[in-house]
Structure formats: structure tokens, C-alpha cells
Design brief:
By secondary structure, the chain is mainly α. The chain contains 3 helices and no strands. The chain is rod-shaped and about 165 Å long.
Length: 137
């Protein structure tokens, strides 16, 4: 009776305890594995973050260098454009002046061909100079 009942309960409790102990061992091993894996992942991710941080710092420095270089290049380009603009204006003014001189000389040559040497031989060289002066103006 009672002894058999208590023995049966003891065997059941012992069986449940053995199953629970096995469950605890299995769970403990799994948790140890998960913890070890997690710690390795943390270490790997920390290393990756450090590497990414170093890369980011390096790239930030490179960006600053390139921005400074671009700024310098833009300033140089602006200065060069101003020089080219001034040179272009100077050239245009000189070209216009030279075209005007060439035109005046061509008219003078034409006048000399028409008048010939008679104008130079005449006593009125002053009138010739006045005629050239009138063409220049």
C-alpha cells in the first residue's frame, strides 16, 4: 500500500528530476554556447566599428583636403578668368585701335595714290598734313 505508493511517487519524482537535470544541462550548454557566440559577435562588431570609425576619420580628412583643394582651384580659376577677361578687353581695345590705324593708313595711301607726288612737290605741305590730320580725326 503506502510504501508502494511512496516508492512510486519517489520514482516518478526521481525520473522528473533526472529529466529536469538533463534539461538544465542541455540548456546550460546552449546558453554557454550562445553567450560565447554573442561575446565573439560583440568583439567582431566592436572591431568592425573601430575599423569603420578609422575609415570614416580618414575619409573625413580626405574630404577636408579635397574641399580645400577645390576652394583653392576655384579661387585660382576665378583669378585666371579675371586675367583672361582683362586681357580680352585689352586685346579688343588694341585690335580696334589697330584696325582704325590701318584704315587711316589705307585711306592715306589711297589719297597719296590719287594725289601722287604733285601734293608733296607743292608748296602746301601743310595742307597735306591737315588733310591727313582730318582723316585721323
Amino acid at each position: 500500500g503506502l510504501t508502494e505508493k511512496i516508492t512510486a511517487q519517489g520514482e516518478t519524482a526521481e525520473k522528473e528530476y533526472a529529466e529536469f537535470a538533463e534539461y538544465c544541462k542541455t540548456t546550460d550548454k546552449q546558453l554557454d554556447f550562445d553567450i560565447a557566440t554573442g561575446e565573439k559577435e560583440v568583439a567582431d562588431l566592436s572591431a568592425s566599428m573601430e575599423q569603420a570609425s578609422a575609415t570614416m576619420s580618414s575619409l573625413s580628412t580626405k574630404i577636408e583636403e579635397l574641399a580645400a583643394s577645390i576652394s583653392t582651384d576655384e579661387a585660382d580659376m576665378k583669378a585666371a578668368e579675371e586675367i583672361r577677361s582683362k586681357e580680352s578687353a585689352d586685346f579688343a581695345a588694341t585690335e580696334a585701335e589697330l584696325k582704325e590705324v590701318i584704315d587711316t593708313l589705307e585711306r592715306a595711301v589711297s589719297l597719296l595714290r590719287r594725289q601722287g607726288t604733285s601734293m608733296l612737290q607743292s608748296k602746301s605741305v601743310d595742307s597735306f598734313v591737315q588733310a591727313l590730320d582730318a582723316m585721323v580725326q
